Amino acid sequence: FRLPRVADCRVAFACSLHDIYYVGNDRQALILVEIEKLYLHDEIVGEDAKGRIKIDAKIMNPVARMGPNEYVSLGELIHLQRPK
Known about the structure:
Number of strands: 6
Number of helices: 1
Structural class: mainly beta
Radius of gyration: 17 Å
Distance between the termini: 39 Å
């Protein structure tokens, strides 16, 4: 399907608005959406040992906004086994 996105974007979501909650005096907002379509570049998608879709976070190389002029990327990935 066609989903407008930034040219080098490896992940994109097509969403519809569910609700907006305004918080505090500075009118910050918590925006809740419903994901209707998802684009994943073939380069970042694989399968785990059980045949489930797995996204390779190292290849995806995500960036998160932490605050004004502050961003963070992934450091070392830590793998933990689920308790049985």
